[in-house]
């Protein structure tokens, strides 16, 4: 997929963006399948639909297979000291920085054994620490999967949950049954459905509207908010989690300041923060020093 050549409208919006008034939306496209097959074909359609609605969109593409990211070793350096201490930082940092760059993520994976591919799961394992310290609050995602017959729901649920847990504000998804080994061609109905969800996704990206999170995201978030004070700098098991959560603003809010909350969600956050604070006193997570 080549980046759009610069037409007059693109140049115009880029100039304006320097002034801070108009800004080209950036989309990161990640192929979490080990080849360009049925699922990638759907992504190509989705990208063309996004281009239709967002004429000045910029794209960056990653074939995850080409990154050769080794398996997560479970060293827990990312949790305790920071992502820069990951033995695979050189590779995982590339994706992290690309996510920082993007406004929208178009992610795909074939459904393998009723879940995402091991390839994509491995990337998510490297980002698991972000479930302790969510970060990508302003980002939106579109996840696409294809399946031979059954199990796509499992892949969607898994990726939707993971992206929201690391902060993503909204995750759109599209799944399709192909009944095919790499000879799938989306019919008109599928193209129509995919066009609809791609349009919704890119309009949401362009409007930059921040949505209230699902309440189930507030539970782990606020348990960490309560617990992580026991890992603040100077404590016996100090960690980067402790630094993140003892930030004054973060400590006093039930979710990130960029995201609106319903009143009941603030109350819910407060309750789970209290539970975390109480339970965390008796249950310190240790590590080998
Ligand atoms: C390792 C492997 C696991 C698969 N697991 C499932 C599955 O759990 N359920 C299913 O219906 N199809 C399964 N399939 C079929 C693929 O999901 C289906 O053919 C898909 O459209 C292929 O997409 P791709 O060409 O992008 O890889 C599997 C295929 C492979 C190679």
Automatic annotation (TrEMBL):
Gene3D superfamilies: 3.40.50.360. It comes from the Bacteria. Signal peptide: none annotated. It holds the Pfam family FMN_red. Residues 25-156 form the NADPH-dependent FMN reductase-like domain. GO terms for molecular function: oxidoreductase activity. SUPFAM superfamilies: Flavoproteins. This is NADPH-dependent FMN reductase. It comes from Anaerosporobacter mobilis DSM 15930.
